[in-house]
Amino acid sequence: MIIGYVLMSWLPNARESVIGEWLAKLVEPYLSPFRRFIPPLFGMLDISPIVALITLQLARSGLLSIISYF
Is the pLDDT of residue 62 over 90? Predict the structure, then answer.
């Protein structure tokens, strides 16, 4: 969902569509804490979705290792 939301920013008026608004309601609550701490690079390049995806991957790996331990 995060990747789709980021790709929609490249298309004009895609985020104003029904699907774009639906994705925004689901993705923005997760991305907003990252955006508060990670400023855009060069004023326009937002890397917070990349950091958010890496965080999700690390959490997934941690949970899987905990589950496999038991």
Answer: yes
